[in-house]
Amino acid sequence: MVNLEWYRTFKAIYKTGTLTGAADSLFISQPGVSLHLGSLEAYVGYKLFDRTGRKMIPTERGKVLFNAISEPLTKLEEVEKNFQKSTEKHTPTISVGMCFETFQTTLEQYVSTLDFNLIISFGEYPEMLDQLDKGILDLIITPKKGTSPNILHEPFSSEQIILIGGKNIDAESFNEVLKTKDFSKIESWLKQEKWYGTTGDMEHLFQFWLLSFGHKPNFRPNYIVPNLNSIIRCLKGGTGLAVVPDFLCKNEIESGEVKLIWEGEKKLENTLYFGCRKKTNYAEEIDHIKSLFRKMMSKD
């Protein structure tokens, strides 16, 4: 059975001439428009539009279908308006991509205060950049810049990648080894300890080790946990080492629950960027989310 929303989407594409225009007029995502059109074309059994660049040109069959549904659909929309319970302003939905730890540490506490709908997505940075470019995401928080000409990257903060340990780690012993400047001994000392890592991205550990010792680590962490915040909670137990961004463990270091062991032979710092499309209908909402991040980062 055909879905009435497919017809509504078809009409919007026909009248605006683009998938983006239809998405804007219907207040849905562009992938949602594509899904509706694909479902309708599969249902009727033929193409309804020819795709020429960014323009959607109706086929002859598409024109026939539009003429058949346009007036009945308009009447249904008028009925819908007459029976609406309210005329409240449409509430926009903003989709934001970032890593799980960043969300927990920054935006999570403000979600209940937002006067617009919010969808948070977690994923790898290349995937999030691609989804931003395609219109699936409206804003991303990333330490990596993409190459798409449609995306703006705005630096707003930085993070330093540091080596931390549980409160029972013998940091004085490590400092004595560190004073020798013998990096084979320093590396040997570190490898004797228990290490924590995450199930996903190990890039922080790889980069830190490469800058300090000139090669990637030749060992695997002893304990693999879901995310970086899990690592910090585990280290509060008193033992173990891990390489993490400094903003995630600032409070724990200040309280003595974990120790800052080493900043590395060369400091490893990442710039954090807001990534958003140059053209957006949600500039006000995106700017509000940016202000919340700046507020949190300024506390550091």
Automatic annotation (TrEMBL):
Q: Which UniProt keywords apply?
A: DNA-binding, Transcription, Transcription regulation
This protein's source sits in the domain of life called: Bacteria
Domain called HTH lysR-type: residue spans: 2-59
Answer yes or no on keyword Transcription.
yes
Q: Does the keyword Transcription apply?
A: yes
UniProt similarity note: Belongs to the LysR transcriptional regulatory family.
* PANTHER family noted in UniProt: HTH-TYPE TRANSCRIPTIONAL REGULATOR, HTH-TYPE TRANSCRIPTIONAL REGULATOR GLTR
Q: What is this protein called?
A: LysR family transcriptional regulator
Query: Which organism encodes this protein?
Result: Chryseobacterium terrae
